[in-house]
Amino acid sequence: MARELTRRERMKLPRQEMPEQDPAARAVNFEEVNLGLSAEAAVAEAERCLLCAHPTCMEGCPVGVDIREFVRLVAESRFDDAVGVIKRDNSLPAICGRVCPQEEQCEGACVLAKKYRPVAIGYLERFVADHEREHGGPDITPVEVKTGKKVAVVGSGPSGLACATDLIKAGHDVTVFEALHELGGVLVYGIPQFRLPKEIVRTEIDQLATMGVQFETNAVIGMIDTIDELFEVEGFDAVFIGVGAGLPRFLDVPGENLIGVYSANEFLTRVNLMKAYAEAAETPLLDLYQKNVAVFGGGNTAMDAVRTAKRLGAARAMILYRRSEAEMPARAEEVEHAKAEGIEFMILVAPLELEGNDAGWLTGVKLQRMELGEPDDSGRRRPQPVEGDVFDLPIDAAVVAIGNRPNPLIQKTAPDLEETAWGTLVADPETGRTPKVGVFAGGDIVTGGATVILAMGAGRRAAASICEYLDSGIWEKTPDIPEE
Fold it and tell me: Which one of 369, 403, 437 terminates a domain?
């Protein structure tokens, strides 16, 4: 039996690196960039964990996964037990292990991060989830003890799926309504295949279906049924709204209606749901071969869009960002991957006008050089124009990736729901309760654009509150929401 490592020995172990596709090869295909750890590498990485008596990493996890325990089990090569620990709190480990910003959450809170590199918690989460899928995990059986209560979950994105998981485990009948023809919400239409393969999402959702969750696609709540009709006609006892924030924000400059200008939502949805990433796929109005493509923005969605443009054959795929690289909100890994794939970064520039020809096609953008001034409310230094420094950049296509806002469809058909000044739904952040009795909400529709795992945390908190409400029948008034 191997000797157990001391704390000092664990601290000196090197962090395992994630194997990747070669940048030159992956820049022209849609296969997954990160290739996953081997079993040997996963065990070696797990052995770096200090098994803290008070694991601060758990405090950084929005869904409260018992990270210390699952990592300990990986170190003992008990992979099935490890994924079982994760799934007590996170029903989508293969997804979260790929797209969550662990460096800001669980890994950022790791004790090792104070002096060394943190334990690669995200890599380990991905490894055990993939191991389960590839080797056949435990049989999933439907929940047999039922409460007789029915809950409608509107939206099949991360908040809706997390909410549905906890509700079905509690014995309630759950139906998830999805507006589009494929399940998964932003996980499917918003994140590229090379970062989150569609089959991974389908596998995780299939497990929920096996547990008994019902799914309805092409179901636009607010059109086929209002919230009131879900109660009065369909007989649901509670409703959870987790529809995300799917309307794009635009640049508000002349020329945004030119042909060749896309929102990131439209662009990525075309690629993902129309399968432009598949060989020989034909996607109307998305011919980028040998074109110059500019993506406006500096977040993860901007990185997804520009790296997708590169894979669709763009001659130049460029990020145009009005601040410096240090202020970019994108994950460091995504920026590094983009640079390795040949993405060009033009920083401290802001668009003044999108320019076109007489036929209405985009031909270029007029740009203003910027410099950084004093910090704004976000803590980032505010960009300000450099007087007289304006220039033109020839481009054939532009993707605007500067954020999203909620679609007001549900609110328009349910006037007793309340909105904030930002167009998000008013809901208690701890319980998800809205001012409308029996209606809960969580995820981006409440917070605005955030991360997958934060949306899942909101879905889980709402599920607990729904269970409490269905059990007691008591509805407490939601607290006042502070004004803007």
Answer: 403
